[in-house]
């Protein structure tokens, strides 16, 4: 009992004072002057704590109302954040689907333009350590893929198949140091060999110093190696150095295909497959 009193001591005192003041204030209005004087004295004595109690309970009420408002506001904000996160996720997924759809449309357009049979594949792994530039695709012998078949996109040459298993194949990229493709400058028909440099660039070799080649020239496949059809874009001339003590120019190419951003490719099947 004593612990209850100590715990609620302030509230008990305030309640008592309020009750006492109400009793006095409600007494007979026809009371004597002495009674009126006593009532005024009591009211003057307890008015300050009563005002303090009124202020306290008003503040407590305002605090509670603000707490309830903030609680509902916080819950509403949480629900709005969840809705925004879901909307953002759906937007990202939609954008990915649109980009994939655009890439597949371009591959389909390549199929429609080409007389050769094409098989589409997705890239499932990369190997770009040092000068090695290869990718793994999700199509293999079961899909009629064979070694030395050309791999392309709608923008041009990607590389050629060098290893084939039942369900996957490894593709040697045109930038690999072991890659070489017969090529010619589209504008002047100057011939050479495009070799990979083990970086993001290629080099057009064995073009004589007397040949007309300028920066911006498009280099395409010559169709002589039996792998790539004639006329597929390989790259664009980005730098030229004349060799005053040799027979050939040093010609640097930027590949037509951004090999670092590849996600899907097409494999050219020989006629009759």
Quick summary:
The protein is of the alpha+beta class and 273 residues long. The protein contains three helices and twelve strands.
Q: What does this protein structure show overall?
A:
With about 270 residues, this protein is α+β, with helices and mostly antiparallel strands. The chain folds into two domains: about 1-65; about 115-260, Rod shape-determining protein MreC, domain 2 (Thrombin, subunit H, Beta Barrel), CATH 2.40.10.350. Helix content is about 40%, strand content about 25%. The chain has three helices and twelve strands, in the order αααββββββββββββ. The protein has helices spanning about 1-5, 10-25, 35-115, and strands spanning about 115-125, 135, 150-155, 155-165, 170-175, 180-185, 190-195, 200-205, 220, 235-240, 250-255, 265-270. The strands form two sheets. The protein has a six-stranded antiparallel barrel. It has a six-stranded antiparallel barrel with strand order 6-7-8-11-10-9. Helix 2 (about 10-25) packs across helix 3. It is elongated and about 120 Å long. Residues about 30-35 have low confidence and may be disordered.
Supply the key terms.
273 residues, alpha+beta, Thrombin, subunit H, 3 helices
CATH architectural category of the largest domain: Beta Barrel
CATH topology of the largest domain: Thrombin, subunit H
The CATH fourth-level homologous superfamily of the largest domain: Rod shape-determining protein MreC, domain 2
- The number of strands is 12
How many DSSP H or I helices? 3
The helix content is 25-40%
Describe the largest sheet: 6 strands, antiparallel, barrel
Strand order, largest beta sheet = 1-2-5-4-3-12
Order of helices and strands: HHHEEEEEEEEEEEE
Shape, per Cα inertia axes: elongated
Label the structural class. Answer: alpha+beta
Could you tell me the mean pLDDT? 77
Termini gap: 98 Å
Low-pLDDT segments: 28-34
* CATH domain class name of the largest domain: Mainly Beta
């Amino acid at each position: 009992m004593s612990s209850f009193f100590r715990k609620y001591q302030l509230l008990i005192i305030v309640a008592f004072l309020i009750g006492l003041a109400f009793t006095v204030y409600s007494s007979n209005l026809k009371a004597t002057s002495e009674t009126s004087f006593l009532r005024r004295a009591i009211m003057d004595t307890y008015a300050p704590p009563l005002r303090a109690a009124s202020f306290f309970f008003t503040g407590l009420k305002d605090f509670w109302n603000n707490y309830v408002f903030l609680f509902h506001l916080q819950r509403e904000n949480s629900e709005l954040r969840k809705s925004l996160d879901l909307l953002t996720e759906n937007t990202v997924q939609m954008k990915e689907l649109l980009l994939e759809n655009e890439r597949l449309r371009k591959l389909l357009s390549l199929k429609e333009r080409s007389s050769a049979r094409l098989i589409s594949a997705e890239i499932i792994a990369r190997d770009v350590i040092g000068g090695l530039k290869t990718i793994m695709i999700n199509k293999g012998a079961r899909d009629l893929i064979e070694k030395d078949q050309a791999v392309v996109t709608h923008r041009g040459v990607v590389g050629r198949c060098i290893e084939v298993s039942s369900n996957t194949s490894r593709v040697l990229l045109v930038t690999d140091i072991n890659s070489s493709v017969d090529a010619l400058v589209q504008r002047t028909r100057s011939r050479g060999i495009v070799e990979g440099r083990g970086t993001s660039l290629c080099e057009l070799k064995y073009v004589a110093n007397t040949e007309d080649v300028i920066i911006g020239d498009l280099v395409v496949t010559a169709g002589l190696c039996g792998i790539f059809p004639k006329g597929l874009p390989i790259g664009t001339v980005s730098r030229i150095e004349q060799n005053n003590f040799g027979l050939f120019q040093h010609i640097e190419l930027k590949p037509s295909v951004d090999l670092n951003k590849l996600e899907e490719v097409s494999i050219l099947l020989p006629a009759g497959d």
